[in-house]
Design goal:
Pfam families: Sec6
Strand order of the largest sheet: 1-2
Shape: rod-shaped
GO molecular function: SNARE binding
Number of helices: 28
Family: Belongs to the SEC6 family.
Keywords: Phosphoprotein
Strand content: under 5%
Order of helices and strands: HHHHHHHHHHHHHHHEEHHHHHHHHHHHHH
Protein name: Exocyst complex component 3-like protein 4
Distance between the termini: 148 Å
Helix content: 55-70%
């Protein structure tokens, strides 16, 4: 049995204005039977002690009450309800007394906070919850002063004594006395738990960290766990584990949620609209979380660790969950490509960065924590972002096209950079693709691949539009065409080298556009020099240097090709070389005038000189199409050969060098030479044998695929018909 001095828990909680309920006759009978006669002096003393209890306990829980959530406010009522439900189920109470006291439970529960439980105790007077003489402070005062461990030790002592009295059937004739005293213990346990929550809420506040209070908190939680390791087998509610560690973790979570929700709380709704407002809010959120976690790791955790209490994991998990909840709220309201990317980037690169906490040794662990955003939320954000991104990139390509149109209208010539014509188009497209792909790669590899596919698809649609718009404009010129050939080639080679595989579908439209620009480049040159071939194989041609103006234009055109990227420059130069030789031969095989005698010999010599000049010029320009050098020379030798038997040898060289030559071309050449019927027949027969062999070689691919005579149209003339006859 506890002494009356050691059982006091603290001041009374009764409202002074609440009238005292009259005592029923049944209550007076029970008190008389128990041998404890109340007196007026006893009641006055009780009211005085309970008034002090109320004021002290109110001071102890004032901070907790003003800051507690609705769950904390309902904690006392849930404890009292559980208490009385357990009491009603107690099987050892007497029937009459038990029924009588159960009927009085509502009255007790409504008055337990004002100290009424002390007035009906069995022989333990109003000083039962007062501290022992010399010990000084009550439980309420200890809680107020945050001497939590001392308060818990007194409560534990009272709990043990009360359980012992119950076991000895002390309350057999007055079970409500046990309920009142047990309620006092439970209420003070709840007050102590509320103080734990208040300490947690104040830990990250502006007043700084109270290391002593945190150490005391950790010790009292561990002491409670040691005192109540598991629920008692008999279901005694007094010895049921209070689960203060869980209560502490819940308080930590509420504290983290309150702190995280403060980020951007001072901004108006309009101030956080748009990407700049969201960026500012996320910056505030990151700064707040970083500051609080640094404080936890450097100040709070050491205080808890002194009592062997791991606090870092709980705080980290609480802040992680609070940040995840806040991000999901922001994600729900995010609009536009920029806002969606800001959220994805902040989650992946800011919060997930190794230096988020500001020091290499302060790193957020990734494995123990769940994803900051749930997989479905992350997938929805990425899907929305890519939808907006596709529209944005298409708009960017449209802007690039408008810039190019403005340059065409202004008549701006392309720059020469590192010896090549260069259009800004290439730089603009490279920057656009690289910027967005890099941004997507900063979030995830999947988003990088998706962004790359979007860019490739948009670029594949843009290139034909650019080609069509340019060719329809009035700005078509050799420098511009060369610049766009270079731009397409650079995009094809550099993008494919940097992003292999995914951009293979882009190679086809880029190559097609390049060939189109090259074709128009050649067509402009051909239109320019075509009239100069009309004088070839005329009588004026025999005495004038008609080839010089033509080769001057070739050299001028080749100057533009020096600023075109390889292999397109060499390919274009060879095509120019082939075109000059082909047109020269076409004019020679259908001459406007026929040469006889000395004129034919002079024409042969002039043709040989022209062949040499053409070959030397293109060789000097760098043409690698040396296979064209024999064509004009062979025709000239046939025309000027004085030994008719050697014509067979010249025909063999011509047919073997140019397997695409046809019988019509041989007839046209022989018609120029004007041989006899028998010799023509013999040469044609031999030529046909050579042509059959050449055709077989061409079908097997052994000739290299060179085409020259196949594109030369030879109309049937009277001379050709005579040669055939």
């Amino acid at each position: 049995m506890l002494s009356p001095q050691t059982a006091t828990l603290g001041p009374e909680l009764q409202n002074p204005q609440e009238p005292e309920e009259p005592q029923t006759p049944a209550q007076g009978t029970r008190q008389t039977s128990s041998g404890k006669e109340p007196s007026a002096h006893h009641e006055n003393t009780t009211r005085l002690g309970l008034g002090i209890l109320r004021r002290a306990f109110s001071r102890a829980s004032q901070r907790a009450v003003t800051q507690a959530t609705k769950e904390d406010a309902g904690l006392l009522w849930r404890r009292s309800s559980s208490l009385f439900r357990s009491f009603r189920r107690a099987p050892h109470e007497g029937p009459a007394a038990g029924q009588s006291q159960v009927a009085a439970v509502p009255e007790i529960s409504s008055r337990v906070m004002d100290g009424g439980s002390q007035q009906a105790s069995t022989g333990v007077g109003p000083k039962e919850l007062e501290p022992e003489a010399g010990e000084g402070k009550s439980v309420a005062d200890l809680i107020t002063e945050r001497q939590l461990l001392a308060a818990f030790e007194q409560l534990r002592h009272l709990e043990t004594s009360l359980v012992a009295e119950k076991a000895s059937h002390t309350f057999e004739h007055d079970p409500t006395a046990f309920a009142r005293r047990a309620m006092d213990v439970c209420l003070h346990y709840d007050g102590l738990a509320a103080e734990i929550g208040a300490i947690v809420r104040e830990t990250l506040g502006p007043d700084g960290v109270d290391a002593a209070a945190l150490t005391e908190l950790a010790r009292v939680v561990r002491a409670e766990e040691e005192a109540h390791p598991e629920p008692p087998a008999d279901g005694d509610f007094l010895r049921t584990p209070r689960r203060w560690r869980q209560h502490w973790e819940d308080a930590v979570q509420r504290s983290a949620q309150e702190r995280v929700q403060r980020a951007g709380a001072g901004e108006t709704s309009g101030a956080v609209e748009g990407a700049p407002g969201l960026a500012q809010l996320l910056a505030q959120l990151g700064g707040l979380v970083r500051h609080d976690l640094q404080k936890v790791l450097l100040e709070v955790q050491p205080a808890y660790a002194a009592a062997g209490f791991p606090a870092w994991g709980a705080y980290l998990s609480a802040f992680h969950g609070a940040v995840a909840q806040r991000l999901q709220e922001l994600a729900h309201d995010a609009r536009g490509c920029e806002q969606l990317y800001l959220l994805l980037d902040w989650a992946a690169n800011v919060y997930g960065s190794p230096d988020f906490l500001g020091a290499p040794d302060l790193v957020l662990p990734t494995k123990p924590l769940p994803p900051l955003l749930a997989p479905d939320v992350w997938a929805r954000l990425e899907s929305s972002y890519t939808s907006f991104l596709e529209t944005k990139i298409t708009g960017c390509f449209e802007s690039i096209l408008q810039l190019e149109r403005s340059r065409w209208a202004a008549g701006e010539a392309p720059d020469v950079l590192q010896g090549l014509y260069r259009a800004p188009l290439s730089t603009d497209v490279h920057m656009l693709v690289a910027e967005h792909v890099k941004a997507g790669g900063a979030i995830s590899a999947e988003l990088e691949a998706t962004t790359l596919r979007i860019c490739a698809r948009a670029l594949g649609l843009f290139v034909p539009r650019l080609e069509k718009a340019f060719l329809e404009s009035g700005a078509v010129s050799e420098p511009h065409l060369g610049a766009y050939v270079n731009a397409c080639e650079e995009l094809r080679t550099s993008l494919l080298a940097r992003f292999p595989g995914i951009l293979k579908e882009l190679e086809k439209p880029l190559v097609a556009a390049t060939r189109s620009f090259q074709k128009h480049l050649l067509q402009g040159f051909q239109r320019d020099i075509q009239p100069l071939f009309r004088v070839v194989c005329t009588k004026g041609w025999l005495t004038q240097d008609t080839l010089h103006p033509l080769m001057d234009k070739v050299v001028a055109f080749a100057h533009h090709l020096e600023h075109v990227a390889q292999p397109w420059a060499q390919e274009t130069l060879q095509e120019v070389h082939r075109y000059v030789v082909r047109e020269y031969l076409a004019q020679a095989l259908r001459p406007r005038e026929r040469f006889r005698g000395a004129e034919r010999v002079n024409g042969s010599q002039k043709m040989s000189l022209d062949a040499q000049a053409i070959g030397d010029t293109f060789q000097g320009l760098g043409s690698e199409a040396t296979w064209l050098d024999q064509a004009i020379l062979c025709v000239a030798e046939i025309l000027g050969e004085t030994y008719k038997d050697d014509i067979r040898r010249h025909l063999e060289t011509l047919i073997q060098s140019y397997p695409d030559i046809r019988r019509d071309h041989i007839l046209a050449i022989l018609a120029l030479r004007r041989l006899g019927r028998r010799r023509n027949h013999s040469l044609l027969q031999h030529a046909q044998d050579l042509l059959r062999v050449a055709a077989k070689a061409a079908s097997s691919g052994a000739t290299g695929g060179h085409v020259l005579f196949e594109e030369i149209e030879v109309p049937t003339s009277v001379d050709v018909l005579i040669t055939c006859i």
